[in-house]
Design goal:
Length: 285
């Protein structure tokens, strides 16, 4: 198996993706499902594809979500094997999500499991938000996702909308809201949806197990550090520093594109607590 360096994502359906940051993922002792109402109404907001500036070679999408202007950089990626047709709700992955309005508003991006790019936004208001509550809900979701894959991915996978609320508030200062990026049949075909927006029915596919290697992108502080990742059923749950037994925390997914080519995306938490994200396409054989 050849070693792979972090590279720009080769185009999937003529599309690729970029990421900006990721938050440290903590393990939760137990997964608790939040209370759900019997009648659930879901919605999304179309993002506008902005004109490219001179010399710009990437797409920019903008829109307003929960009163905050959100910018998404593309091109974007999705699992073409599971969602070969354009329908509302197809989850996007590996995107860069940000806001450029004021120092009292910002985006914390989270790359999750079946729901794709999920994020939390924060803006200054008279009533405040609680990132700790959001992180706790997210930890519960990751724990449920781990339990699902530990059980050989049988049954219906846990969805993030069953664990993460639409918004979080506590003390004055900030309000925290959540959303996720999806494909839609309207507008630019890119939208922000509420956290519980349902996933469309995925095509039944068999994703082969695989191992692959990536190099740490920070070759100044982590020169010659490579990571061995182990994937099964579309999820990479185990990773070590190459040629050692040192385990690193990983949250990652992958899909098989055919002809020996795989797409891998996710986040690695280094042993010192720092992290980096990756989104690559490669033939690991």
């Amino acid at each position: 198996m050849k070693k792979t360096t972090i590279i720009a994502l080769a185009m999937l359906l003529g599309l690729s993706a970029c990421k900006k940051d990721a938050s440290t993922i903590n393990q939760a002792p137990s997964a608790q499902v939040k209370a759900r109402s019997l009648v659930v109404s879901h919605n999304y907001v179309d993002l506008t594809l902005m004109p490219r500036a001179a010399g710009q070679n990437y797409d920019t999408y903008q829109g307003v979500w929960q009163g905050l202007q959100v910018t998404v950089l593309g091109p974007l990626s999705w699992n073409i094997q599971q969602y070969p047709t354009l329908v509302n709700g197809v989850p996007l992955v590996g995107a860069s999500v940000s806001t450029s309005i004021g120092s009292d508003s910002y985006i914390s991006e989270q790359n999750s499991g079946p729901d794709g790019n999920v994020f939390a936004g924060s803006e200054g208001v008279l009533e405040g938000g609680n990132y700790a509550q959001f992180q706790a809900s997210l930890d519960n979701y990751y724990q449920a996702l781990d339990n699902y894959f530990d059980a050989n991915a049988s049954g219906t996978p846990p969805l993030i909308g069953d664990y993460v609320n639409t918004s979080y508030s506590s003390v004055p200062g900030f309000v925290v809201f959540t959303g996720k990026l999806i494909r839609v049949t309207t507008g630019s075909n890119v939208a922000i949806a509420d956290i519980g927006y349902p996933l469309p029915t995925a095509s039944t596919t068999t994703i082969p197990s695989t191992n692959f290697y990536i190099s740490d992108p920070d070759q100044v502080h982590y020169a010659s550090v490579n990571y061995a990742l182990y994937g099964s059923n579309g999820v990479c749950k185990n990773a070590t520093i190459e040629n050692s037994s040192t385990v690193v925390v990983i949250s990652a997914s992958y899909t098989y594109l055919g002809n020996g080519i795989f797409q891998f995306w996710g986040t690695i938490i280094r042993t010192d607590g720092t992290s980096f994200s990756f989104n690559i396409t490669d033939n690991p054989s």
